[in-house]
TrEMBL record:
Signal sequence residues: none
Pfam families: ArsA_ATPase
Source organism of this protein record: Isachenkonia alkalipeptolytica
Domain of life, source organism: Bacteria
Protein's name according to its UniProt entry: ArsA family ATPase
């Protein structure tokens, strides 16, 4: 099978990491070789899986077929610099290398390194499923804009000065091909499923609407929504929870109306913290049961 890509995004604090981790455990349990990658600088995969992960691909204890990695922006930048400079050291003198190092010391490099690492996992067929747990929405939109922006920048520079802020265009030709390939994969609905996670609150719905529109302008479409954090119906015997439950149901209906062509899953609150493999397996049983899905209206 072609590698499938699943990207999770949404506001901070809506439960992206929990839903991405649940989905990763779900696919691994189906026998799919699965990689879970977080691009969030404030990543906490190590906390939720209760084991050290960090900036390296790590097998998850207790889940066959599942690996995970937390991208460290600083380490990604250093790796990108060295990857760029290594072939130059054999061709140029010290002065040229010094100039190249200066060029690689600006914010341009940090931006480039972050998404270059991201794209590396879209240019790799070692896994059946690659799941990206991304940073809060604005950062994610920027991350996904970058391949488009950089591909254009390289193309325009090739017709002009021949230089980018990362150096000569000739050195970046291979990168442009990689970015173009990543853009095509992100826009391919058969290979990429973009999932927004939201809370049943007006502000969360409004941000999801805005972000979905921004993505659509990049040619990337919302594949699914997960409304996370619902009050269980059996708890509505208490007036406080009944009022909150009713308001949440109103948001669900508004979401269904706003995203009438998008399948919507719902996830109720657990009475304990959602962390650890055992909890993710329980959550997956609920999230991926057919009853949890609101299919698009005919």
């Amino acid at each position: 099978m072609d590698t499938q890509y699943i990207l999770f995004s949404g506001k901070g604090g809506v439960g992206k990491t929990s839903m991405a981790s649940t989905t990763a455990v779900h696919h691994a349990n189906l026998g799919h070789k699965t990689l879970l990658v977080t691009t969030d600088p404030a990543a906490n995969l190590s906390d939720v899986f209760e084991q050290e992960i960090g900036h390296r691909i790590t097998a998850i204890d207790g889940v066959e077929h599942l690996d995970a990695m937390e991208i460290d922006p600083d380490k990604a930048t250093e790796e990108y610099k060295e990857q760029s400079l290594a072939p130059m050291r054999e061709l140029f003198d010290d002065e040229m290398i010094r100039i190249a190092e200066e060029q690689l010391s600006g914010p341009c490099t940090e931006e480039m390194a972050a998404f270059d690492k991201f794209i590396d996992f879209m240019d790799n067929d070692d896994y059946d499923v690659v799941i990206f747990d991304t940073a809060p929405t604005g950062h994610t939109i920027r991350l996904l804009e970058l391949p488009v922006d950089w591909s254009k920048h390289i193309e325009e520079s090739s017709k002009g000065s021949g230089n980018t802020c990362m150096g000569p265009v000739a050195m970046l030709t291979e990168s442009k091909e990689k970015y173009d390939k990543a853009i095509a994969a992100l826009r391919d609905k058969e290979r990429t499923d973009f999932i927004f996670v939201m809370q049943p609150e007006s502000s969360s719905l409004e941000e999801t609407q805005r972000s979905s529109k921004d993505l659509q302008e990049l040619g990337i479409y919302t594949g699914h929504l997960i409304i996370n954090g619902l009050i269980p119906k059996e708890e509505t015997v208490i007036p406080f929870f009944k009022g909150k439950y009713d308001r949440q149901q109103e948001i669900i209906e508004k979401t269904r109306s706003s995203f009438s062509e998008v399948p919507i899953k719902t996830m109720e609150l657990f009475d304990s913290e959602l962390k650890g493999v055992s909890m993710f397996k329980q959550c997956a049983e609920r999230l991926y049961q057919e009853e949890a899905v609101y299919e698009p209206q005919p």
